[in-house]
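## tool: complex_structure
## caller: assistant
## args:
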Amino acid sequence: MIHRAEHVPPADTFAAAESPCAGQDQPYGQPDARGHFGVFGGRFVPETLMPALIELAQAYDEARQDPAFVRTYEKLLHEYVGRPTPLTLAQRLSDRYGFPIYLKREDLCHTGAHKINNALGQVLLARRLGKRKVIAETGAGQHGVATATAAALLGLECDVYMGEEDMARQRLNVFRMRLLGARVIPVSSGTRTLKDATNEAIRQWVSHVRETHYVIGSVVGPEPYPRMVRDFQSVIGREARQQILAATGRLPAVCLACVGGGSNSMGLFYPFLNDPQVQLIGVEAAGHGLESGQHAASLSGGTPGVLHGAYTFLLQTPEGQVQPAYSISAGLDYPGVGPEHAYLRERGRARYVSVTDEEALAATQELCRLEGILPALESAHALAYLPQLARRAQPPTGSVIVNLSGRGDKDVDTLMARLSS
Amino acid sequence: MSTRVQQLFGRLRAEQEKALIGYLPVGDPDLDGSYHRCRAALEAGLDALELGVPYSDPLADGPVIQAAGSRALAAGFRLDWLWLQVERLRRDFPGPPLAVMTYINPVIQYGPESFVRHLAQAGADALIVPDLPGEESAELEAICRRYEVARIPFVAPTTPPERMRQILSQAEGFVYCVSVTGVTGQRQAEEWAAQAASVRHLVHSVRQAAAGLPVCLGFGIASGADVQRLAAEADGVIVGSALIMAAQEGRLPPLVAELKQATLPESRWKG
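## result:
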């Protein structure tokens, strides 16, 4: 349970082969058969759910080996999502910071964020499992919109659980989900944000586990979710790796992505894990500042424990009560983080830093004015680390890829309230 | 392994009764208030008590236990309160088994060994952790064995037969049989009517796999009628949300009395 030292792999596990096929690349043998990334991960859920998780893991392992499933998924990514998404050289931004900055344009995905990569994969899997209905939790609403979209496309019923506070700050996405035929169910318990929306989705899943698939939106939750969501999102990193090689002839010096639960960052990082010369940097939301206690930086400011079925880093009291997170960005406003990030941090393969609300707002405006792109507030956290990267004693000697995980249209209300005052 | 648990079920079997196990969270409405509720419930006829550790993210619980946990946390619940409550109840009620129900995260943060040692020293007989399946429980089970605290296993309606055998092969104390897929809290009469047959079937298969271990049924049981309808095959029932609601409405002792009567053979009913 707590001592899983026997699962910590030797130091050379990052050196292994990579296959280009979706869901079949395994750069390093994590997680183990019970879903442990070193000491992190696992399955901490009520017994009622255990058989469903075991069944899901088996079904996923079969599906990812099934060429017909992989073909259907890749065809949807190409013809429906619009992949591959471009890798855009941000020239004026590069001029400002003094190194070449490339943006991985997940903001150009259908529905406006990377979340659709995972939602389509899981809803396809739900259909393969014979489930008639999917449920999802959502924070910013992007995962909810993506799941509602995939459910509409594939003809499944969809319920989305969303905290009341998030419904207020992301009302555009609430309306979009309803337009797409989903039911949006307000969650009024606890913090009324993503943490409690996830609790409620899990409770609903416990109650309707036989006929329902739970589409988790990030690399969090019990095995097999962290690895399954990672695999579906790793298309981001596979494309980016090929694109940067084509554009510059070299691997990037740095990959930069925001981390809430951590799905867009895991998707970008995963195909680069075996490239030790590529620095992987995850940017967490420091909210009003780490010292203020009002932030969502689980890795930078949290401790290990169990949240939503996995052993990982989270914000909690010394007695293990989960603490509310805070961020201006609803998509990062989560007190936990995917267990694989906890593992990559422990192993030193990825570094995790944080930026404040103010820094993210400044980065949002900067990208608008320099590049004509309105980033999601989540993605703006990755951009907001560029100034610190440029100030480092050793600035990057090659290119920097920033995952522009989503577009900012959904945040216009928040931006208006913050910037026009 | 707890002798109190064995003695209780031994005695009840001889008398053709079923065990009435009540769940109440520590610290709701406050430390003293929750002690007095426990006391009242034991005096009104509970055979065993399950003390709940309030938690910020109670995944397996419905709205009533969620709200009770929030009240206790708002009242300032700390784990000190748990040890105090167990100690005090053990002193005042030497006979009935006392179990503690907690989600795993507080145990991990406190340190599993310290947690179980405190429980054992305070006089608890059993530990119930709803979000710790067998796959993750080896360490805690070893600690519990060392301190002679029974680690109560769960089986659910979704548990397949082979898995059930695995879970029960190591089990101690009694089996916590989850009556329905879902969270804790009262069910509508129609839902029970639709499920009663499958619940009885579930208890029957658990009993066959449990090799003599008592089987207790929990989740959604709220009234004497529920007990009679569902518990025919079980050795006991666990009632939580309904007790909390009754306590808030000042009718905890009469509900306990009603539930207890339903666990007796009909020949011993009063009135």
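## assistant note: The two ends of chain A are 50 Å apart (CA to CA). The first strand of chain A starts at residue 36 and ends at 37. Handing back to user.
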